[in-house]
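#lab-general

N.A. 3:47 PM
ok so I finally got the sequence cleaned up, no stray characters, all 184 residues accounted for. can someone with queue access submit it? mine expired

B.Y. 3:52 PM
send it over

N.A. 3:53 PM
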Amino acid sequence: KNAAWGGFVDKVEYFDASFFNTSAGEAAMLDPQQRIHLESVWSALEDAGVNPLQLSEKEVGIYVGLFTEDYKQVCVQTHNDASVYFATGTSGAAAAGRTAHFLGTQGPAVMINTACSSSLVALHYAKESLLQGESELAIASGVNLMLTPELSENFANAGMLSPDGRCKSFSGSANGYVRSEGCA
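B.Y. 4:20 PM
back already:
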């Protein structure tokens, strides 16, 4: 099927829970998208020359583009949905808030789901927050992990995925897209 094509991230199960002040029990219920988001934001701040430890109580806007919530389905299928951490660990809406809480920031923390354009819309809102003086620093991100095959299979059955594994946006030979994972 067309769902066989994709770009995949290895080792999404690894997470330094103690670094992010997260208990082992909570970390086990934490959607890998939230994990990779925390790690990526920390790295991006360091790469930008911003000390993440100095953002506490600053007006920092955090805008996260996040589309799927596959981990919730994984937890329900494996009966892990009884954990006290299930609601916050598997909710895409918690990704921005968890990052803001960890950094100690005071600005807006927003999760955006506009499907494939989620990260682009997050970038737009981050820019607007800066231009309007709502934030002194803004973090715009997008995260996607494909943790179950069902959504890809559904998209393939609907004819949305490329049968040759190539995206040809805006081309006359466009025949679908290829799903991929990552965080930026």
